[in-house]
Amino acid sequence: MLFTELKETGIDYNGADSLRFKQYTRGYSAIDRLFRASPTQVSGGWGDVMVRGGIVQTQSGGNISIMAPYGTVTVGYHSEDAKNYGQGGIITRRGGDVRIMADDSIDLYVSRVFTLQGGDLTMWTSNGNISAGAGAKTSVFNIPLQFTMDNDGRVSVDAFGLSTGAGIGVLDALQASGDAAAKQPTWNPPAGTSGGPQQDRPVRKKSRMDLLAFRGEINAGDAGIRVVGDFNIAALSILNAANITVSGATTGLPTVLAPNIAGLTEASNVAGSAAQTATLPAASRDGDRPSIIIVEFLGFGGGDGGPENEEQPGRKNRQSYDTNSVFQVVGNGTLTPEQAQALTDEEKRNSAR
In 31, 67, 105, 296, which residue has its Cα 20 to 30 A from 286's Cα atom? Predict the structure, then answer.
């Protein structure tokens, strides 16, 4: 009942159509009703759950529930102290759910928490973080092979429970649509025998994972989070989201959008066009610039270009006498009556000499 309340709190928190959208008091109220003592009233170290090098597992469809309402949950060793770190963890191998609740952080270090063949996984921390750890993705954990024989004497190898990698994972879930149960292939009896069709395997619903840390962060780490099914996540911050893979529906996981570079491209094009426009007039001006032609006259023909005699330049520069000019020359020859009338008495006496 408690884990159902916690899981539904996360679903309501991310459900836009829910009356409790973006509210998580429902889960905290359920914890307070079941565990009435405050975590501050419990001495440190008495409420922690530590699963070091060993393994907690079920092999026949059983569930695993771990609660640390006053402390932390630690799975595995630190990387520098790990020995055979590929062999530990918390795993349900033939279906079955894994449910972990803590007041403080849930840390996996180099270990794993897996559900295989159709189980669900729920993790809740009231005041801490959830870390998938730094386990190697190449680690392999497998139990000894089992050989089974049917009524006809046919022997088959059962390699169930093979798991690879580390971190948090809901693996090998059936691909069903929605929350409906996945249909399994049926076994039909041979012709001429009695009996109706039977289910070859039990009906399994589609798996899901819920990671809830409303007052902390969820870190996918190096090990990563893998979900074959639906995924719901809620936290103040989500780190290494690129290391989370989900095959089904996802809620609460932020979408990483590629940056819009259209503006940068347009600005670059405008700048390029402006540069081209600036260079074109310059080239045009260079083409329109007038040419400078220097001409030196070496001669005009007919001799060496010098004057024929010394008097020739003087004759060419000689000008004729203008009788209408305001300046007149008198006394050079006989005066006309008009010229003589314009002279003063002294000029007349001088001209008579």
Answer: 296
**pLDDT classification of 3: cutoffs 50, 70, 90:** very high
- Report the 10 Å Cβ neighbour count for 292: 5
Residues 211 and 230: beta-carbon distance below 8 Å: no
Q: Is 16 left (phi over 0), alpha (psi -120 to 50) or beta?
A: alpha
Residue pair 117/60 in contact by the 8 Å Cβ criterion: no
Which segment of 86-90, 180-184, 293-297 scores lowest on mean pLDDT? Answer: 180-184
pLDDT of res. 337: 77
Chain centroid to Cα 114, Å, comes to 29
- 137 closest CA partner among 42, 58, 221: 221
Is-contact 33 1, C-beta < 8 A? no
Q: Are 243 and 224 a contacting pair, CB within 8 Å?
A: yes
% helix / strand / coil in the chain, to the nearest 5? Answer: 20, 25, 50
pLDDT at 54: 81
Residue 17, phi-psi category: left (phi > 0), alpha (psi -120 to 50), beta (remainder): alpha
* Beta strand extents in 21-127 (DSSP E only): 49-51, 55-58, 64-68, 73-75, 89-92, 98-102, 106-107, 112-116, 121-125
- What gap in Å lies between CA 41 and CA 103, rounded to an integer? 13
